[in-house]
């Protein structure tokens, strides 16, 4: 190609769209707060003047009506705007909030950003991962969470672990620490170790086990438990201490022979950057909602890649969040595992049809335009907001699924 033929391409706007791309205008924004037993899902639906709509999720697991209010407040800015200017709009909305950060604002921004990217993907006829750099993989390895629902005794954990592994899952995550907070008695430590030992013995050496702590221990207790659990070879030790002090996290990492995972309660890229600088984290766990959306999550993944660190995103929320996270998994080279809840409330499949397939412990990346799912407003309205309390400190942590919970995915071959 001659230089004069190349020049028009070089001068073209880097964001230039195909001639066939429609010109859209945002006309509406509506939020939904949907009871999901352990929390409430927060959804947004953004409509346009040509009938095309997009959906997003801003679930925080607490204070959900506050997130919905923050999203609704953004309609004053968004209505009348071009939905294709995704990053411009989220930048302005963050700037104009003045406070700029915090899990409420970040989660609201994530929901809006997802809905705009969903619209853009549908308008262009491509999955959102094409807007994030293109597809890197067709399937992503899943680790199961919530499989232990109702277990208490070590042998109960073992039975449920075997049943989950038989479904093809090659990694199981669980919190063995009951209602521990900061310190643990010798009896509580022994019971936690016995639970982990029972699971390891039950599933054998070729299934990964992942130990979740939910940031509940002080440094000496986290170190002591990390040392005691090391012989069972957990793939990682997740959020062993409170998330506020990254120096404490780094101290625990230096003191135990285990990989550390953290990040589900970091809501800005700079926190991940500091955790990496201090040497406190091996597996980065951004939550696509809490960190502010898919574009911010991609930035976290890039930071991790520069430091040769894997990403295993936090993903225990609702169906739209799962769809958002799958777009990151599809387009990110160092994304190694997808957190996957084994079951969920029976109305999940009615509120949003996801069409999820797991093959040999890996979830297939959907190929539909946009995020690949739609929100059923009528079904969402049947399950209005219901306040839920945390179970982490009451001894009821394993009761995270209702008795009638069902799988929301299907096994493929």
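^ Assign residues to that structure.
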């Amino acid at each position: 190609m001659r230089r004069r033929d190349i020049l028009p391409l070089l001068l073209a706007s880097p964001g230039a769209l195909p001639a066939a791309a429609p010109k859209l205008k945002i006309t509406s924004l509506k939020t939904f707060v949907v009871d999901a037993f352990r929390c409430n899902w927060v959804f947004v639906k953004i409509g346009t003047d040509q009938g095309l709509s997009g959906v997003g999720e801003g679930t925080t697991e607490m204070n959900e009506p506050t997130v919905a209010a923050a999203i609704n407040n953004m309609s004053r800015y968004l209505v009348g705007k071009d939905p294709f200017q995704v990053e411009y709009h989220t930048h302005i909305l963050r700037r104009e909030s003045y406070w700029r950060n915090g899990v409420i604002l970040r989660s609201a921004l994530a929901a809006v950003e997802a809905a705009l990217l969903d619209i853009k993907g549908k308008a262009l006829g491509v999955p959102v991962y094409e807007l994030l750099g293109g597809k890197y993989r067709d399937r992503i390895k899943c680790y199961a969470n919530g499989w232990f629902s109702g277990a208490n005794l070590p042998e109960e954990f073992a039975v449920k672990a075997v049943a989950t592994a038989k479904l093809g899952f090659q990694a199981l995550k669980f919190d063995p620490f009951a209602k521990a907070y900061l310190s643990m008695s010798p009896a509580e430590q022994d019971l936690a170790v016995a639970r982990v030992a029972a699971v390891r013995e039950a599933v054998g050496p070729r299934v990964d086990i992942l130990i979740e702590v939910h940031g509940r221990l002080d440094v000496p207790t986290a170190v002591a438990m990390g040392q005691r659990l090391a012989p069972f070879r957990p793939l990682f030790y997740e959020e062993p201490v409170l998330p506020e002090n990254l120096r404490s996290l780094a101290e625990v990492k230096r003191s135990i022979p285990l990989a550390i995972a953290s990040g589900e309660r970091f809501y800005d890229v700079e926190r991940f950057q500091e955790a990496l600088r201090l040497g406190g984290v091996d597996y980065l766990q951004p939550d696509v909602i809490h960190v502010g959306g898919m574009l911010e999550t991609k930035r976290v993944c890039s930071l991790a890649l520069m430091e040769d660190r894997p990403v295993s995103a936090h993903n225990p929320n609702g169906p739209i969040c799962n769809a958002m996270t799958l777009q990151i998994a599809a387009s990110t080279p160092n994304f190694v595992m997808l957190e996957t809840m084994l079951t969920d409330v029976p109305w999940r499949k009615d509120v949003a049809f996801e069409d999820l397939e797991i093959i040999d412990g890996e979830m297939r990346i959907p190929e539909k335009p946009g995020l690949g799912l739609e929100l059923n407003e009528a079904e969402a309205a049947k399950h209005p907001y219901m306040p839920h309390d945390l179970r982490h400190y009451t001894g009821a942590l394993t009761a995270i699924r209702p008795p009638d919970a069902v799988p929301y995915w299907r096994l493929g071959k």
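Confidence is low (pLDDT under 50) at residues 1-19.
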